């Protein structure tokens, strides 16, 4: 029973760390990266559709991204969705067959602003991991009548270790992203 609670908490924390890393990837750096466009939702025939399902994304140059839609009628909608996406700061151009996005050079102030955004996302991810820890602790406390006090204390220490490991993984990913953002 205790092992099940700890395994479930660990798996959920793993998913939270992966979600945080994906979230960090959506914040732009100095170079074009198709992952930045993961969260772009295009209004395609009345339903919000992820950009990756509507087009192929290639980056032929360091600061250029070429979006080749599978359905050419979606060009305008893709262009508008990219323009409306917050924190990208790009202006896409449409030549009738593809959408070309050229990333402007980041200023030092803009880099610092992105670092603040990434730190906020990192803190949100840590809060999520801590909430998962709290839920697992409540589940362990519910097992108090079935297992001994010593087993419960051991399980809580193990849960703390798992939580600390996941928080450290988020911190490590955050440090890498900050270094990438501040790199000129």
From TrEMBL:
Predominant subcellular localization, coarse grouping: cytoplasm
Which InterPro entries is this protein grouped with?
Answer: Ribosome_recyc_fac, Ribosome_recyc_fac_dom, RRF_sf
Query: Would the keyword Kinase turn up in this protein's UniProt record?
Result: no
Q: Which residue range or ranges hold the Ribosome recycling factor domain? A: 21-182
Q: Which domain of life is it from?
A: Bacteria
Q: Where in the cell?
A: Cytoplasm
Among SUPFAM superfamilies, the record links this protein to:
Ribosome recycling factor, RRF
Query: What does it do?
Result: Responsible for the release of ribosomes from messenger RNA at the termination of protein biosynthesis. May increase the efficiency of translation by recycling ribosomes from one round of translation to another.
Family the UniProt entry places it in = Belongs to the RRF family.
Could you identify this protein by its name?
A: Ribosome-recycling factor
